[in-house]
Recover the amino acids of this structure.
């Protein structure tokens, strides 16, 4: 792989740490649940994801996503506990120069 074929993906770790939780640290047994809904009228798929701590039952809230109901953009419900992600049936895509160029254009 040549230098020009290397895609650099930015990693943002600039957020300040969350305060130390009291009691359960929600880090021993966590579970994510998901479901896929197919909307016949729109011919679209939506993946819904929820997560919680199995130890104490506390739900995880998704942050930094718009509160909305949408089948075309990632969003969360009004409480922030369910994220909805538009998905499409995928096919394996080969890494081609065209794909690399399009990924560079998106940055
Ligand atoms: Zn917990």
């Amino acid at each position: 792989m040549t230098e020009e074929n290397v895609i650099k993906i930015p990693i943002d770790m600039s957020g300040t740490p969350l305060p130390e939780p009291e009691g359960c640290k929600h880090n021993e047994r966590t579970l994510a649940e998901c479901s896929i809904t197919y909307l016949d009228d729109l011919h679209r798929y939506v993946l819904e994801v929820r997560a919680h701590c199995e130890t104490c039952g506390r739900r995880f809230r998704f942050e930094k996503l718009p509160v909305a109901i949408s089948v075309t953009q990632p969003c969360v419900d009004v409480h922030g506990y369910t994220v909805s992600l538009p998905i499409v049936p995928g096919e394996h895509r080969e890494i081609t120069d065209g794909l690399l160029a399009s990924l560079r254009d998106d940055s």
Notes: Residues 28-88 form one domain. The mean pLDDT is 89.
